[in-house]
Write a structure and sequence with these properties.
Structural class: alpha/beta
Number of domains: 2
Number of helices: 7
CATH superfamily of the largest domain: Response regulator
CATH architecture of the largest domain: 3-Layer(aba) Sandwich
CATH topology of the largest domain: Rossmann fold
Number of strands: 15
Order of helices and strands: EHEHEHEHEHEEEEEHEEEEEH
Distance between the termini: 40 Å
Oligomer: single chain
Strand content: 25-35%
Helix content: 25-40%
CATH class of the largest domain: Alpha Beta
Shape: elongated
Strand order of the largest sheet: 2-1-3-4-5
């Protein structure tokens, strides 16, 4: 479910790629995420132009190096393009991709973890734009309960920001400790930090991010959240003191 609404409306996705293996893997990934729906697959940009004339789409997974018309040139032809995640085997297109306001830029071969990071960015953009949604559509924004999905034990697990107590890095994995569960996911702490609202979460150590509202007490060396005493890293003290008003 998209975080911008409490209905079951899904994010409609169009895959535009001339490589069958890429089509197969993107379809597989989309099918595994409950908030996504595959609207169609096009082999090139020319097919996509025709498809978009009759099918509403929220998100494009767009290859760049395609015969006939490059993906970047295709986007420039659209007056009101959907959100775009570029998919390509070539790093050289990255700068141009972001200049076109792409949500993300995925290098092939695309891992599922990296795919989920991109989808979380889409969900966050949808949440941010929900404040401007028309109330005439009888759809209520879920602004009070933002969330993200993380992969854990072969499932996509929904994590409400308001439930998170702290996040701990365990080498290649993260432990997300919330009020009602603990989730282990394979992801870097820096990548997850980018997805969290900075006004609500604070990096206090290379291995810890905490929810500011969940702090029970603190001193110059540690922060207490419930029964957990978490260290403040030497290189993070200035930012912690600034945030907490010390």
């Amino acid at each position: 479910m998209s975080p911008k609404m409490t209905t079951t409306k899904k994010i409609r996705c169009l895959v535009i790629d001339d490589e069958p293996p890429a089509q197969v893997i993107l379809k597989k990934y989309i099918d595994q995420v409950s908030s996504l729906e595959l609207a169609g697959i096009c082999n090139n940009a020319i097919e996509a132009i025709s498809f978009l004339q009759t099918h509403p789409v929220d998100l494009l997974f767009l290859d760049i190096q395609m015969p006939g018309l490059l993906g970047t040139k295709f986007i420039r032809t659209l007056d009101n393009p959907p959100k775009v995640i570029f998919t390509t085997a070539y790093r050289k297109f990255a700068v141009e991709g972001f200049e076109l306001n792409a949500v993300d830029y995925l290098l092939k071969p695309i891992s599922f973890d990296r795919f989920i990071m991109a989808i979380n960015r889409v969900l966050q953009l949808n949440l941010q734009s929900s404040n401007g949604m028309s109330q005439e559509k009888d759809v209520k924004p879920d602004n009070n309960h933002p969330f993200l999905y993380v992969r854990s034990d072969r499932k996509m697990v929904k994590v409400l920001f308001e439930d998170i107590l702290y996040i701990e890095s365990l080498k290649d994995y993260l432990k997300i400790v919330s009020t009602n569960k603990t989730i282990i996911t394979r992801q870097s702490i820096s990548s997850l930090e980018e997805m969290l609202p900075k006004e609500s979460f604070l990096r206090i150590h290379r291995s810890y991010i905490i929810a500011i509202s969940k702090i029970d007490s603190y001193n110059g060396e540690t922060i207490d959240i419930g029964k957990n005493e978490l260290p403040i890293g030497r290189f993070f003290k200035h930012e912690v003191n600034s945030c907490l008003g010390r």
